[in-house]
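User: I'm curious whether this sequence folds into something compact or stays loose and floppy. Could you predict its structure so I can see for myself?
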Amino acid sequence: MSTSLKNVRRVTTHVLQEMKAKGEKIAMLTAYDYSIARLVDSAGIDVILVGDSASNVMAGHETTLPITLDQMIYHAQGVVRGCERSLIVVDLPFGTYQGNSKGALNSAIRIMKESGAHAVKLEGGKEVLGSVERILSAGIPVMGHLGLTPQSIYKFGTYVVRAKEQEEADRLRSDALLLQQAGCFAIVLEKIPAKLASEVAKSVSIPVIGIGAGGDVDGQVLVVHDMLGINTEFNPRFLRRYADLHEVITGAVANYVKDVRSRNFPNSEEQY
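Assistant: Here's the prediction. I'll summarize afterward.
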């Protein structure tokens, strides 16, 4: 064990519960590889989500559906090796838990054993409760995900704000309570009205992490490629860009190309 690791307090599900109780906001970002995870972790992030959004930002797919369990485990392995402090949560990909609680448990066990991550996340409420309960029965922490659930995009047919109508809002409130009662340690609420998200966060005792769900929840999560400005095609209202790495990286590469072609690189001090 490294000296630095001995002096770091690892974030756990219990720590997140303490943060909610104290009113301390939880900062969460995605990461999909060792290098970015190491940077994000060292900057003080509380939770790293190895999201199935890797299907979009790492593999270039239109949706999150194509990514496989093996691919999620591969991404998670690199993230785990890059972290000393953060709680690492891994998305169960589409098709590995819906309608099959035994399959869900097997998928979650593979993630935990083969990656070394600390928890799994899955989308849905009442319809996936059997899978949630079966995973929890093995002692594996589960984070829920309600509101806009990208794995159901073909069911919804759109990425618009969810739970604006009373019936869907009531179902979301009910699902949040069901997930808490089942034993989930936290819930992500994606792209729902801020007022509803606030009500849900106050109605449950577990942390509620928002993405496009307003500021009156217990924490926030963004996709790291979006907030760093690597991906410039995605511009929802809830996204704040903290850097413009698209410009930085393309500019650096263009300068490299120019220097190579002009024979300016390498110079006499950059060779043996």
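Summary: The chain has two domains: 3-241, 245-272. The radius of gyration is 20 Å.
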